[in-house]
Amino acid sequence: MALDQNKGVWKSGRGKGRRTPKGRQVEDHALAEIQALLGDRPRRRDLLIEHLHLIQDAKGHLSAAHIRALAEEMRMSMAEIYEVASFYAHFDVVKEDETPPPALTIRVCDSLSCELAGAEALKSALEVGMDPDQVRVLRAPCMGRCDTAPVLELGHHHIDHATPEKVQAAIAAGHTHADIPAYQDLAAYRAEGGYAQLMELRVSGDWEKVQETVLASGLRGLGGAGFPSGRKWGFVRANPGPRYLAVNGDEGEPGTFKDRYYLERTPHLMLEGMLIAAWAVEAETCFIYMRDEYPAVLHILAAEIAALEAAGIVEPGYIDLRRGAGAYICGEESAMIESIEGKRGMPRHRPPFVAEVGIFGQPTLVHNVETLHWVARVCREGPEILSRVEKNGRKGLRSYSVSGRVKNPGVHLLPAGSTITDIIAACGGMAEGHVFKAYQPGGPSSGLLPATIDDVPLDFDTLQPLGTFIGSAAVVVLSDRDSARDAALNMLRFFEDESCGQCTPCRVGCEKAVKLMQAETWDQPLLEELCVAMADASICGLGQAAPNPIRMVVKHFPDEL
Ligand SMILES: Cc1cc2nc3c(=O)[nH]c(=O)nc-3n(C[C@H](O)[C@H](O)[C@H](O)COP(=O)(O)O)c2cc1C
Ligand code: SF4
Ligand code: FES
After folding, report:
1. Strand, coil or helix: what is 329?
2. What is the pLDDT of residues 507-523, one digit of tens each?
3. 244 CA distance to ligand 1 centroid (A)?
4. Which end of the chain is more exposed for a tag (fewer CB within 10 A), N or C?
5. Closest CA to 34 of 75, 1, 4, 3
6. pTM above 0.70, yes or no
7. To test ligand 2's pocket by mutation, which of 250, 332, 339, 539 has the most ligand atoms within 8 angstroms of CB?
8. What is the pLDDT of residue 3?
9. Which ligand neighbours the alpha carbon of 235 most closely?
10. pLDDT tens-digit readout, 161-200
11. Which helix (H) or strand (E) covers residue 309, if one does?
12. Positive or negative: CA dihedral 529, 532, 538, 542
């Protein structure tokens, strides 16, 4: 019998064959929406996080239908997209049977300075006063505004010294967008000689001379590691191109807000420093990875990059601004690179170092925002601007982000040899009614020192003998009204939340430590065993430094345990 005389799959299509391809089907309307949102943007994999932001911003969440459509559009598997979207705190993945979040989100910072300023009570008051169908209240890590604690973010509007009344007023006024501060724009920066140095270098500069100038200034990496800044340039250049530059604007270490401080005032100092460093290593593209918690900075940078393009100072697309999505670990340089590539921010094993194998496997120069700010100033004003400042045997200047129980918290630019006594004095002394008890010298990774250790310069290399380090110079001052033990618990909670989970000593260690630290009496031998495992066997600095707050409370505040 001829095949086409039979009824069945061949003729009617009603046989046993599948009517659709295997797997979940892409819904036409979802695909159309995604295509409209993406427009003519490239469907490159490294842009995945940018595309997820477009959907989250437009729809308030990432539905299963939209993720399916995005997977189809980007020719990626859904699993890969889920994996990335669910890694980042600022994406709300909503499965088919789940209810999307309400239209408005309030994120209440509960990191140390905000906790000291009453974040817990603020969050509870907001939870009672809000309709959960309209507004959700979430806890969130440091927003880089610790000097105005307690802080929260309503949509993209940050409320400093937050109260429920301020929140109600902002909601009533529909004020959920970022306020853009007055800052020095391109015209104002050029009027005072900005970019003249870059132009000169591009015409007749010698990169090795510039590297020497930077080295002579004594500038060291201000992201926390303190690596001599100029020296990296030679390492990157030693590897064949194409090479890239990445600016680390993740600034997630609780208590740190210096990068935001500079970018909201003089963004072009960082941008010129970046372009000088990019010229020195012959970078093909400059990526700027900016944390999502800084919407005003993202706005300023987008506007000023466009101005640089319009002025012909950079080719369109030469500076690629990328928006983080709420993951502290993306401040670790290799995790940041993974994120720039559109992946989960999981630190890589080293070696190879990023100077050799960085973005897209190519040599990459990574610098902190403030480091580049100083590169521009050193090139314009000479290395002496840093090297001539001497105090307590230390050279240079440091931007201390100071918060907690001081009279005038904020960014204080002081000699790098400053002690905590100098820093508190620069802040106008302790807050009314508070007696100095302890301080965090450089973010939670640095733990806590007692007030009795008040004569050590807070600089690179000076704190190691005390089992700590200066890191990003995030100084939080505690008083007689605060508990060192509670502060350490706050720090470990932060690490527990922010561990990328890749390695067991850190993932499980942080969780167990938080449990043990909540007991009435600390099981000190068990905690120390845990600390050894975390410090010795974690892949990156997060897990390696997480034991510091525990060990320092055991050492300096045993009476609290
Ligand atoms: C857990 C962790 C978090 C980090 N977070 C940041 C950050 O937010 N910003 C930053 O510039 N560097 C951060 N760093 C340091 C970077 O890995 C890297 O050393 C730095 O960006 C290099 O730039 P620099 O030499 O100019 O400091 C972090 C490191 C670790 C281990
Ligand atoms: S130490 Fe923690 S944050 Fe770092 S790679 Fe391991 S699990 Fe991730
Ligand atoms: S903004 Fe809350 S601790 Fe930094």
Report:
1. helix
2. 999 999 999 999 999 99
3. 17
4. N
5. 75
6. yes
7. 539
8. 54
9. 1
10. 999 999 999 999 999 999 999 999 999 999 999 999 999 9
11. helix 295-310
12. positive
Nearest ligand atom owner, CA of 117: 3
How far is residue 533's CA from residue 453's CA, in Å, rounded to a whole number?
28
Tell how far CA 392 is from the center of its chain. Answer: 32
DSSP H or E run through 31: helix 28-38
CA distance 469 to 225: 9
Q: If DSSP codes are grouped into helix, strand and coil, which group holds residue 248?
A: strand
Is the Cβ atom of 542 under 6 angstroms away from ligand 2?
Answer: yes
- pLDDT confidence of residue 1: 46
Strand pairing partners for 62?
A: 93
Closest CA to 355 of 245, 260, 437, 276: 245
Which phi and psi (to 5°) does residue 115 adopt?
A: -60, -45
What does the alpha-carbon distance between residue 149 and residue 240 come to, in Å, rounded to a whole number?
47
For the ranges 22-36, 103-117, 252-266, 326-340, the lowest mean pLDDT is seen at: 22-36
345 within ligand 2 shell (Cβ under 6 A): no
Q: Which residue's entry shows tokens 């963004």?
A: 267
Cα of 332 from ligand 1 centre, angstroms: 5
Q: How many CB atoms lie within 10 A of CB 207?
A: 18
pLDDT attached to residue 507: 97
Q: Phi and psi (nearest 5°) for 361?
A: 80, 10
Residue closest to 354 by CA, chosen among 208, 245, 456: 245
Structure tokens at 300: 């300023």
Please name the amino acid found at residue 478: L
> Does 214 score more than 50 pLDDT?
yes
Q: What's the pLDDT score for residue 25?
A: 78
- Which residue's entry shows tokens 């030693």? 238
Is 383 in contact with 217 (CB distance < 8 Å)? yes
Spell out the long-range contacts of 510-519 with Cβ–Cβ below 8 A and sequence spacing 24 or more.
510/534, 510/543, 510/546, 513/546, 513/547, 513/550, 514/489, 517/485, 517/488, 517/489, 517/492, 517/550, 518/489
The predicted pLDDT at position 410 comes to 98
d(CA 11, CA 9): 6
Per-residue pLDDT averaged across 492-506, rounded? 97
Round to whole Å and give the CA distance between 139 and 109.
6
End-to-end alpha-carbon separation of the chain, Å? 89
